[in-house]
């Protein structure tokens, strides 16, 4: 009987010692859970996913070693983990940088920065610019002229513009074809188009380090994928060997496309951006109403 009383008293004490959970605590838990979800969603599509699974195994073994007092294993793992965390940030520095850039491009802070969207007066890509790009790309595809054209969107590409030669000219099919013509001074590198103007040529772009890209694709395609991983730009590639046209956007590559696909893609892009701004401004008005 006394043992039963002891058990009940212990249960009563444990219930009384349960911390009070308020609204703030629930919000705190939800924020942490959401951040963990975002991190897992991000790393599952990168090479860091394999690292994450490896770390999970190491931490599991460490917990087992601690619980069962496997002192040697615990000492090795505890020391390795403390050094390994620093090594993770060093080895996967590009992935962490890309994650921060994706957060900056995302919608997380858009509603808090409405004034920035209202101030920006960047021109939407015009119909004449789209037609000039399509005409030039189809011509270069027919004659197997290698080309790399980057269309800037929200993320600014000033760092890459400075690696090339500034042009600041109206976009015309004839000018694009002439730039990428064989043995001309400007044919090597990328052309960057922004605000319906050819901003710069012979620009150097970051190469992707993805191991999934086909070995038959060359430097142009790797550069197109690389810039699409660090920005929201649309990049058009014309293969010099086969004349096939490819497009990269948001880290994905679409091959063997036609001019109509490019026309539709570039026409829809400003509409999506306008819809996004409309939603943001609508939210902003609701806050003040």
UniProtKB/TrEMBL annotation:
Keywords: ATP-binding, Cell membrane, Membrane, Nucleotide-binding, Nucleotidyltransferase, Transferase, Transmembrane, Transmembrane helix. Catalyzes the condensation of 2 ATP molecules into cyclic di-AMP (c-di-AMP), a second messenger used to regulate differing processes in different bacteria. Residues 93-259 form the DAC domain. Its EC number is 2.7.7.85. The chain crosses the membrane at residues 20-43, 50-68, 74-92. It is an enzyme of class 2 (transferase). Belongs to the adenylate cyclase family. DacA/CdaA subfamily. It comes from the Bacteria. It holds the Pfam family DAC. NCBIfam families: diadenylate cyclase CdaA. It catalyses: 2 ATP = 3',3'-c-di-AMP + 2 diphosphate. The gene is cdaA. This is Diadenylate cyclase. GO terms for molecular function: diadenylate cyclase activity.
């Amino acid at each position: 009987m006394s043992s039963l009383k002891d058990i009940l008293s212990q249960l009563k004490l444990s219930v009384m010692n349960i911390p009070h959970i308020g609204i703030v605590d629930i919000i705190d838990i939800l924020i942490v859970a959401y951040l963990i979800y975002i991190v897992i969603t991000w790393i599952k599509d990168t090479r860091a996913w394999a690292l994450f699974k490896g770390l999970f195994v190491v931490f599991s073994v460490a917990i087992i070693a601690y619980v069962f007092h496997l002192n040697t294993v615990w000492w090795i793992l505890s020391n390795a983990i403390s050094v390994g965390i620093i090594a993770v940030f060093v080895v996967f520095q590009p992935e962490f940088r890309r994650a921060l850039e994706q957060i900056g491009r995302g919608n997380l802070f858009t509603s808090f920065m409405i004034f920035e969207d209202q101030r920006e007066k960047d021109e939407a890509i015009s119909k004449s610019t789209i037609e000039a790009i399509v005409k030039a790309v189809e011509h270069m595809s027919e004659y197997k002229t290698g080309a790399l054209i980057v269309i800037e969107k929200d993320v600014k590409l000033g760092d890459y513009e400075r690696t090339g030669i500034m042009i600041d000219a109206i976009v015309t099919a004839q000018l694009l074809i002439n730039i990428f013509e064989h043995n001309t001074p400007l044919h090597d590198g990328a052309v960057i188009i922004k605000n319906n103007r050819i901003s710069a040529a012979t620009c150097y772009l970051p190469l992707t380090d993805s191991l999934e890209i086909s070995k038959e694709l060359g430097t142009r395609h790797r550069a197109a994928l690389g810039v699409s991983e660090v920005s929201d730009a649309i990049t058009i590639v014309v293969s010099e060997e086969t004349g096939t046209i490819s497009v990269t956007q948001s880290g994905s590559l679409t091959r063997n496309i036609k001019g109509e696909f490019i026309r539709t893609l570039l026409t829809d892009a400003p509409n999506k951006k306008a819809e996004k701004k409309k939603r943001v401004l609508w939210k902003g008005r609701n806050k003040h109403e």
